[in-house]
Write a structure and sequence with these properties.
By secondary structure, the protein is mainly alpha-helical. Helices cover 73% and strands 0% of the residues. The protein has one domain (3-178).
């Protein structure tokens, strides 16, 4: 086995555990007595985190190709994978003592702290690899960083809803049209 294959195995385990945490949260919500009253904001963020996890999973080869495989890149990839694991583990995991059907959006949105750190590191990675700071992959990640930070910090539900929809739309647009361009690191 090559070094890259060993790195990919370790990263797959970490990100796979994060995917598992999100799926366990979805099962917990589906088993709730009245699952139709579930707050959709944390569930939407769980979908966004899942997209980030799969994007990281498939983009790891491109990152290693762009940055080369070194000890620093290995640890960088481990930190990014752990951030995604933490986000997946926190998003649908809050313990609800009052009503198990309705997630406490503030506690579930603690997961946006590692998401913000992940997207901010993408800004630094894409900006530091020769892409201009105004290139689409960099500006896209700046937008994602600002939106995830705003969703965590803003208390009004109506504004948080708008920020959540904007984040998911920007993320999907980025996956389909921006990060698929050659030369961008896919995170």
């Amino acid at each position: 086995m090559s070094e890259l294959e060993l790195v990919l195995i370790v990263l797959s385990f970490i990100v796979g555990f994060g995917v598992n945490e999100i799926l366990k949260g979805v099962v917990k919500l589906a088993k709730a007595p009245d699952w139709r009253s579930v707050d959709w904001i944390p569930v939407t963020w769980a979908v966004a985190i899942l997209i980030h996890q799969f994007q990281f999973w498939f983009g790891t080869l491109y990152m290693v190709e762009a940055l080369g495989l070194s000890v620093a890149v290995f640890w960088l990839l481990i930190v990014l994978a752990v951030l995604l694991y933490l986000a997946g583990g926190l998003i649908l995991s809050s313990e609800r003592k009052v009503d198990a059907r309705v997630p406490d959006a503030r506690s579930d949105l603690r997961a946006l702290i590692p998401v913000t750190a992940y997207t901010f590191s993408a800004v630094l990675l894409n900006g530091g690899t020769g892409l201009g700071w105004l290139e689409p992959p960099v500006t896209m990640n700046v937008g994602l960083t600002v939106l995830s930070l705003a969703a965590f910090a803003i208390g009004r539900r109506a504004v948080r809803t708008g920020v959540t929809v904007a984040y998911l739309a920007l993320l999907l647009w980025g996956v389909l049209f921006v990060w698929s361009r050659p030369g961008s690191i896919v995170i």
